[in-house]
Design goal:
4-stranded antiparallel beta sheet; 0% helix; mainly beta; 11 strands; binds FE2/S2 (inorganic) cluster
């Protein structure tokens, strides 16, 4: 079952921040207009997107260089062909919540 989970404070998300909740791996990105979240796993093979480079609102996988749109999770650079899951984000005061499975 999914629920809103507190994972960070806004000031913690300066650029890229990996967060874990149980078995859930999420990466938060600070863009000019807010905070966005993706599953912290490349859709090609296992690699953490939180360890990749961010450029022009895209994250580049550190393993083979696939490129994903931070807002939509869509692929804009091979070899990955599947999108990365986007995670809903909610801000309450200075707290950052993500909507994920609670296990
Ligand atoms: S593991 Fe990310 S592009 Fe291959």
């Amino acid at each position: 079952m999914k629920e809103w989970v507190l994972v960070a404070r806004i000031e913690d998300v300066k650029g890229v921040l990996r967060v874990e909740y149980g078995s859930q791996e999420v990466v938060l990105f600070r863009l000019s207009d807010g905070i966005f979240a993706l599953r912290d796993t490349c859709s090609h093979e296992y690699a953490r997107l939180s360890e990749g480079e961010v450029w022009d609102e895209k994250v580049y996988c550190p393993k083979h260089g696939s490129c994903f749109d931070i807002r939509t999770g869509s692929v804009s650079g091979l070899p990955a062909v599947l999108p990365v899951e986007t995670i809903p984000v909610r801000i309450e005061g200075d707290e950052v919540y993500v909507y994920i499975e609670n296990w």
